[in-house]
Input
Amino acid sequence: MSVLSKPYFHDEAAAFAHLESVIWANGVTCPHCGACDRISAIKPNPAKRVRIGLKKCGHCKKQFTVKVGTVFEHARIPLNKMLQATYLLTSGKKGVSAHQLHRLLEVTYKTAWFLAHRIREAMRSGDLAPFGVGGGFVEVDETFIGTDRTIKPHGEKKGRGYAHKHKVLSLVDRDTGRSRMMVVESLKAADLLPILKANIAAEANVMTDEAGQYAHLSDSFARHGVVRHGAGEYGRGEIHTNTIEGSFSIFKRGMKGVYQHCGKQHLHRYLAEFEFRYTNRVATGVNDGERSKRALGGIVGKRLLYADSSVA
Ligand SMILES: [Zn+2]
Output
């Protein structure tokens, strides 16, 4: 026996039962009218095309399964395979490529690619609460990744400099262990400050390196600690950015090893994936099974905004 021998990875009825236990932990709810009672299960019958997991609401008389209104709704692959993919994407530190999923799940590459994006959407946190509430420590740093093909390099030699790369701003709340990453267009102080103010509480202790864009943060936050990397410094006591550098190294290894080519239009989903795994890591008390369950809990109420046909 292993984790992978769990029935819900192999049997569709068990997969529905598992997903229902996560999504409807407080009881079945009709996705059409919101009713929580008078809901009956309809016995599956392939001859009459009655699907597994079908329910009927006694109030609005509509039928539904647990997939209705979630990112899994229109996926045409067995639910047990979608649960396998969710487990694979949430358990490894660096993620799984669409090519690996295509081979492991024995589905087409296109199906695997699209399924991975559905799961990334499930991992996307809708949480907008600021970091550093109550005077906590928040580390802020930026990193550069891939090539932003929407930018024309001006006099920059190929492969040098950062102007042509995607710019990723990241925050880590040292006390809660949470991470938040976002693609930004510019690293100028005037462009970054509104983003930082929207994501970090004014009473926070903000930790950055000596980069110019962070020079005046003490005007906006209770305290600004600066690590002078240029002077060979790694930190002084609680003034350091070691936590966020650790999260970046996982992110960069994953993006390099697993997701080599990532267009700008999809980058935010990969960020959501790394942010999710980092926030829900073993050090914050979340094991692989629980992490997978939390991702499944995130499938509700989200939609992918692009059509199946846009899959490259
Ligand atoms: Zn209803």
Summary: The first helix runs from residue 12 to 23. The helical segments are 12-23, 79-91, 98-105, 109-123, 189-199, 242-257, 264-279, 288-297. The first strand starts at residue 39 and ends at 41.
